[in-house]
Amino acid sequence: MSGIAIHGGAGTLDRSAMTPELEQQYLNALSAAVSIGDQIIQKNGSALDAVEAAVKYLEDFPLFNAGKGAVFTHDKTHELDASIMCGNTLKAGAIAGVSGIANPVSLAKAVMEKSDHVLLCGIGAMKFAEFQGFEVLPESYFHTDLRYNQLLQVIHEDGIFLDHSVHTDPPDKKFGTVGAVALDKHGNLAAATSTGGMTNKRWGRAGDSPIIGAGTYANNNTCAISCTGHGEFFIRAVVAYDISCLMEYAGLTLEEACQKVVNDKLVKFGGEGGLIAIDTKGNICLPFNSTGMYRGWKSESSEIFTAIY
Ligand code: ASP
């Protein structure tokens, strides 16, 4: 069995703010990302390469909050977070607070494969990127008017805001992080997540996306998970690892574990969002406790499915 699932963020999505053309753009991008990952799997490639390639595509797509199109910090910069994990080796790599890197997921993979470390942050992570030959791009590459206008709406306020939460009234709360999970034909699982974090963030804030066990986790004994939502809650609930533990130690199915964590534990916590998950048999779960989650998936013999609400 094999399979792949991807997400482009969850949240309180206001249907009336979406035009048919924009919706089609999102669905096309989700479908393309699934297809890119699936082609790697069908050619006997690794789940790790499949999730990296799918996330890279979503990072390059400016409507999602990762890579190009990432949200602005309070200082009008971009600070990117990403992580990746291999379920076979339990090796993982992550970066937090990095600027100028077009595909943070590939830098996270380089941390996993070419360093002795798991998580590199800020200036040090950028030095590592240059040492590994990553091109460092100007801030202008990451600029989109949509994100800049979102920042201008809230820059004088004290809080931080999830992307798209600031341009409608009442707020359209959307979490535009991207992620992918996959099971390859060799039985190996992998997960990856990439984000710009939250609009108006400062003080080096990082969410759950670069935290192994919170926003990303993969283990060949259980499942692969990539999360999206209000990162502070996902860190405190150790969401991704909790699902794996419920399967490994309590014997829950993927579906049972996902429902318990996303629609019970996180709801009681006040943590809005969702996640994508795949288990060792290729079962796919895409739970969210918000009104929508941009998502796409394909199991071994199925067609590609995409959905938002
Ligand atoms: N989880 C991300 C964060 O808190 C946000 C998101 O999912 O869009 O940084």
The strand line-up of the biggest sheet is 4-3-2-7-6-1-13-14
The SS-based structural class is alpha+beta
H/E order of the elements?
EHHEEHEHHEEEEEEHHHEEEE
CATH superfamily: (Glycosyl)asparaginase
Oligomer: single chain
CATH topology: Glutamine Phosphoribosylpyrophosphate, subunit 1, domain 1
Number of domains: 1
The biggest sheet, with number of strands, parallel, antiparallel or mixed sense and barrel status, is: 8 strands, mixed
CATH architecture assignment: 4-Layer Sandwich
| Distinct helical segment count | 8
SSE order and pairing:
Elements: E1 3-11, H1 20-42, H2 47-60, E2 80-86, E3 92-98, H3 104-114, E4 119-121, H4 122-131, H5 145-154, E5 161-162, E6 178-183, E7 189-195, E8 198-199, E9 216-218, E10 223-229, H6 231-236, H7 239-250, H8 254-269, E11 273-279, E12 284-285, E13 292-299, E14 305-307
Parallel strand pairs: 3-4
Antiparallel strand pairs: 1-6, 1-13, 2-3, 2-7, 5-8, 6-7, 9-10, 10-11, 11-12, 13-14
Helix pairs in contact: 1-2, 2-3, 7-8
Aspartic acid binds at residues 9, 65, 162, 175-177, 195, 197-198, 207-209, 228-231.
Describe the structure.
The structure is a single chain. The chain has about 300 residues and is an alpha+beta fold. About 35% of the residues lie in helices and about 25% in strands. The chain has an eight-stranded mixed sheet with strand order 4-3-2-7-6-1-13-14. Helix 1 runs antiparallel to helix 2 (about 45-60) and helix 2 (about 45-60) packs antiparallel against helix 3. The model is unreliable at about 165-170 (pLDDT under 50). The structure holds aspartic acid (ASP). The site of aspartic acid has 16 residues, from strand 10.
